[in-house]
């Protein structure tokens, strides 16, 4: 009967208590006390928190009735006033203890939001099962907040009711029906979790800020028999704040903070759009206070617009280390948090950041703990952040704030594709063969490998790499061992790898790997220059890498780590495809790297150009370059070269077309500025040891409108490409040439008649059908003297060495000295039309020298060979020593005509010794006075005029009795007779002596052996 009565009384008390919390607008103050005050029996007004606080504040003990409690009450307060409350359970009880408190901000002077500060907390225990799932035992605290502010407030009509019946007993988790026994929240509000255990010390109080005007605090403790040695303690303060937004929470009025738009039918999901135009921040509920338990907040940030040619990226970060505080689930001794930095090893709450708008996207970051967050950057215009709050946890100042920014990058930037693919193909066949590679400019998900595969356009391509920066965070700075636990970088030379596999070597040099304590070769100085090309080149092998083949792979691997890196792993490198291909055949290591040989037996025509290898130019570290291209044809061939492009900038040289030689010629310009800087292309035709210029080009940077044709006379030609004094910024884009070549049948020069009689000679050549050719007809001949003699040449024509000496369309002789490339003379000759028309009589020497009816006088030009002017008979410096004198004569026919040249072998009448003395040449017997040269005796008075003045054929020399010749002949005959007689007498005398010599008749015997 007593149990039944007790049960009825308890039910009635529960009903009255529930009805006592009537919902009213704002009850009228009958007593005159404020809403935030309690009226004593004596009429005094005290703060609501002083009721049943253990102190007689009224003076009549009406605020401390017997068995009172401050539980199950509604608290109001004035703005700015901090009110302490200590919740204590009754000393003697056997039933469960449930304490519910409602904190209501009534508006105006009573504020609009609530602040709860927990100074001491010890309610139940938090225990984890084998799955690391935490639950509250022996009591808990729950905070609830409605999803919207309400104009109604809760007020207490009764006081003194301290206990009511609970169905939960024993050491079991408190069930949801019991914990929500006094929950008056709306139906769409989430079922919040619980706090239990001890207060975790974070260096300050644990504060809760409501987002609306109504907060319910509920403490549930099971019956006392199940408490064992666990104690209960809860001490907090409450304070109300006005509706005016604070700068900390909502920002400045001039620069307001955008906290996103709340998603429909959700507790804390928010959507952010176009944060490039506003200041967006992601905040946990109730920030800057701690957030509640047992929910998941989803924050979606998207950028809807971006400038043309760019793509948006969302950047999340937090530099303030006090604005991220997520409990890791681990507590150090003393009740403090064991994690002082962000980590991905989370047993409780966790923040996940997805690279996309849903949770199926790649996870960019997963963290908890306290500290600053380095930039987390999305690969695209959308990102998602999830804050997951577990159902049970110790009381901790859990909060989160992230700054949101929008960054616009080029659409062709490197980025990880959806699905985690991070492979980039860099094709060398594209127009741009150089550029930058770098770690994608966004956060890379863990366990991702990004590969950069370089593929040359041919087998001759090489990949040149130099790194501008490299960073991997070292988490074990105290150790010298490399762990490679954050990220690594590998350089894989695929061509070298194939060689390694074929050779079965035990050492693989094809792969280079770098981690946190090692780094690739860095050419950091290049960062300071435009296009990352430094004034001091990044040379091989100190500052850069060069592949052995056309394929190279660079891999960057990102490993999963429990620690959130303070700075993301990254690298930047400049790459360039180097074209090592060169036409022709390499001439071997004894020649330069770009000396090439072309033979007509291999190819009759083809294309060749200056090298495209950057290492041969200034940007690759070479200040000077000289490349020679040798063309060798058969004896019956000549060579044509078509220059299609010339890029030869220089201020020290100019080229022009020489009408005299019908060739392009260079003229050097004396200048102090850039004296050592020159670029030139020279083409020479060599016959034996004589090199004749075919063309010289410099100081041209324009595209040729029409290819320049150069044609040789012989079958051996050399083209030289020379650049000196290049800067570190210049390469094959600044200097070079392009050309084609063709071996063709040589011009027939057999129509000429050459006569040589002892010490003289004559050459007559007739040029026909010249108008059918697109280049002048060229023929050449060597004229060689006898040992220790010189050449005197007489041409039919006049001197054309001076400028404009020859009329346009005039045939020419060009004379070269052996071993010297520049011509020593140019002779203009109009030729003989009769010869061109085939008058054979004109070709005969008799007709040429006929005294009867002599032809009209023709202009003549004569000259000595170059060695004639060497008085000491020493060979000029740089020329080979030889005992014979050689001259190369080249005929240039631009129209039909005849070419004539005569030559004599001459000697000097006087010789100058090395000491400077002048001596008479005893071998010089017949001298041409006007030439100061001696001719051979057989040419003297031979019926042909050899001296220009005819001195050798004058009558006084040729028609007198030859006494001298007769005397010489007689003397020679007499000497012969004397020698013959003397020889006969000697022979006869010896024969007589031999016959009269006595023959010995005794022979000496050898003595016998003794």
TrEMBL record:
S-S bridge residues: 33-45, 40-58
Cellular component terms per the entry's GO annotation: plasma membrane
Pfam families associated with the record: CUB, DUF7805, Ldl_recept_a
Signal peptide range in chain numbering: 1-17
UniProt xrefs under SMART domains: CUB, LDLa
Xref: InterPro entries: CUB_dom (IPR000859), DUF7805 (IPR056707), LDL_receptor-like_sf (IPR036055), LDLR_class-A_CS (IPR023415), LDrepeatLR_classA_rpt (IPR002172), Non-NMDA_GluR_Accessory (IPR053207), Sperma_CUB_dom_sf (IPR035914)
Listed transmembrane segments: 963-987
Domain CUB, chain residue ranges per copy: 268-411, 422-578, 594-744
UniProt keywords, alphabetically: Disulfide bond, Membrane, Signal, Transmembrane, Transmembrane helix
UniProt name for this protein: CUB domain-containing protein
Organism: Tropilaelaps mercedesae
Lineage, uppermost ranks: Eukaryota, Metazoa, Ecdysozoa, Arthropoda, Chelicerata
């Amino acid at each position: 009967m007593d149990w039944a009565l007790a049960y009825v009384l308890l039910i009635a008390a529960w009903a009255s208590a529930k009805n006592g919390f009537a919902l009213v607008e704002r009850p009228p103050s009958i007593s005159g006390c404020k809403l935030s005050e309690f009226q004593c029996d004596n009429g005094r007004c005290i703060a609501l928190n002083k009721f049943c606080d253990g102190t007689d504040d009224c003076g009549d003990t009406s605020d401390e009735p017997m068995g009172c409690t401050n539980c199950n009450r509604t608290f109001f307060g004035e703005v700015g006033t901090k009110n302490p409350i200590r919740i204590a359970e009754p000393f003697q009880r056997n039933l469960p203890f449930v304490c519910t408190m409602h904190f209501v901000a009534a508006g105006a002077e009573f504020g609009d939001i609530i602040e709860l500060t927990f100074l001491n907390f010890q309610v139940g225990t938090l225990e984890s099962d084998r799955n690391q799932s935490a639950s509250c035992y022996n009591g808990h605290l729950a905070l609830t907040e409605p999803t919207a502010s309400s104009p109604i407030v809760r007020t207490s009509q009764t006081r003194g009711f301290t206990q009511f019946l609970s169905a939960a007993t024993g050491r079991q988790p408190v069930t949801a029906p019991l914990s929500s026994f006094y929950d008056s929240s709306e139906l769409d509000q989430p079922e919040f979790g619980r706090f239990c255990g001890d207060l975790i010390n974070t260096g300050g109080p644990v504060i809760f800020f409501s987002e609306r005007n109504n907060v319910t605090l509920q403490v549930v403790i099971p019956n006392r028999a199940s408490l064992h040695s666990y104690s209960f303690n809860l001490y907090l303060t409450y304070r109300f704040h006005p509706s005016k937004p604070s700068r900390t929470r909502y920002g400045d009025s001039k620069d307001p903070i955008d906290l996103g738009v709340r998603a429909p039918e959700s507790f804390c999901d928010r959507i952010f759009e176009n944060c490039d135009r506003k200041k967006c921040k992601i905040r946990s509920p109730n920030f800057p206070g701690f957030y509640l338990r047992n929910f998941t907040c989803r924050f979606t940030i998207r950028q809807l617009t971006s400038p043309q040619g760019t793509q948006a990226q969302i950047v999340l970060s937090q530099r303030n280390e006090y604005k991220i505080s997520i409990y890791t689930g681990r507590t150090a001794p003393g009740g403090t948090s064991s994690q002082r930095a962000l980590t991905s090893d989370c047993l409780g709450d966790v923040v996940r950041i997805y690279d996309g708008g849903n949770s199926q996207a790649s996870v960019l970051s997963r963290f908890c703990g306290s500290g600053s967050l380095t930039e987390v950057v999305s690969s695209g215009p959308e990102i998602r952040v999830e804050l997951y709050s577990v159902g049970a946890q110790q009381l901790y100042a859990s909060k989160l704030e992230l700054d949101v920014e929008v960054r616009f990058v080029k659409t062709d930037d490197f980025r990880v594709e959806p699905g985690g693919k991070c492979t980039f193909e860099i094709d060398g066949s594209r127009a741009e063969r150089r550029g930058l590679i770098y770690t994608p400019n966004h956060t890379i998900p863990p366990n991702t490998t990004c590969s950069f595969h370089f593929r040359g356009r041919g087998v001759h391509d090489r990949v040149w790499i130099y790194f501008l920066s490299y960073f991997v965070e070292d988490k074990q700075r105290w150790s010298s061992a490399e762990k490679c636990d954050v990220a690594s970088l590998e350089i894989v030379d695929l061509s070298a790898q194939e060689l390694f596999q074929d050779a079965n070597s035990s050492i693989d040099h094809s792969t280079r790997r770098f981690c946190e304590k090692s780094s690739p070769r860095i050419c950091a100085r290049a960062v300071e220059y435009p296009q990352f090309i430094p004034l001091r080149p990044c040379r091989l092998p100190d500052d850069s890498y060069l592949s052995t083949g056309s394929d190279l792979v660079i891999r960057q691997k990102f490993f999963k780590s429990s620690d959130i890196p303070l700075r993301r792993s990254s690298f930047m490198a400049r790459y360039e495809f180097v074209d090592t291909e060169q036409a022709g055949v390499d001439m071997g290591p004894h020649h330069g790297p770009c000396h090439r040989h072309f033979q007509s037996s291999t190819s009759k025509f083809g294309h060749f150009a200056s090298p495209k290898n950057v290492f041969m130019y200034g940007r690759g570290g070479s200040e000077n370059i000289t490349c020679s291209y040798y063309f060798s044809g058969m004896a019956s061939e000549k060579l044509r070269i078509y220059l299609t492009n010339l890029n030869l900038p220089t201020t020290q040289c100019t080229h022009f077309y020489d009408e005299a030689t019908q060739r392009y010629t260079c003229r050097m310009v004396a200048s102090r500025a850039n004296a050592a800087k020159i670029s030139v292309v020279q083409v020479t035709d060599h016959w034996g040891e004589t090199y004749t210029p075919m063309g010289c080009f410099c100081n041209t940077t324009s595209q040729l409108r029409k290819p320049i044709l150069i044609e040789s006379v012989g079958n051996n030609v050399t083209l030289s490409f020379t650049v000196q004094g290049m800067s570190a910024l210049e390469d094959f884009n600044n200097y070079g040439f392009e050309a084609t070549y063709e071996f063709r049948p040589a011009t027939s020069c057999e129509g000429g008649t050459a006569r040589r009689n002892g010490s003289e000679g004559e050459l007559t050549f007739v040029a026909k059908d010249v108008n059918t050719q697109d280049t002048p007809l060229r023929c050449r001949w060597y004229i060689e003297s006898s040992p220790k003699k010189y050449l005197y040449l007489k041409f039919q024509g006049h001197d054309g060495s001076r400028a404009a000496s020859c009329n346009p369309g005039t045939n020419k002789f060009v004379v070269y000295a052996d071993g010297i490339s520049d011509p020593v003379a140019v002779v203009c000759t109009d030729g003989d039309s009769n010869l061109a028309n085939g008058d054979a009589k004109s070709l005969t020497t008799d007709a040429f020298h006929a005294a009867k009816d002599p032809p009209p006088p023709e202009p003549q030009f004569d000259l000595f060979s170059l060695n004639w002017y060497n008085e000491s008979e020493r060979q000029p410096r740089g020329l080979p020593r030889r005992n014979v004198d050689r001259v190369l004569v080249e005929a240039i026919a631009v129209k039909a005509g005849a070419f004539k040249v005569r030559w004599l072998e001459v000697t000097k009448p006087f010789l100058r010794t090395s000491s400077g003395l002048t001596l008479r040449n005893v071998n010089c017997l017949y001298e041409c006075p006007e030439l100061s040269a001696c001719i051979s005796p057989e040419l003297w008075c031979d019926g042909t005029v050899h001296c220009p003045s005819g001195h050798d054929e004058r009558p006084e020399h040729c028609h007198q009795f030859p006494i001298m010749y007769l005397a010489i002949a007689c003397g020679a005959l007499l000497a012969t007779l004397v020698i013959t007689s003397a020889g006969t007498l000697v022979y006869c005398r010896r024969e007589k002596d031999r016959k009269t010599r006595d023959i010995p008749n005794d022979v000496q015997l050898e003595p016998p052996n003794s």
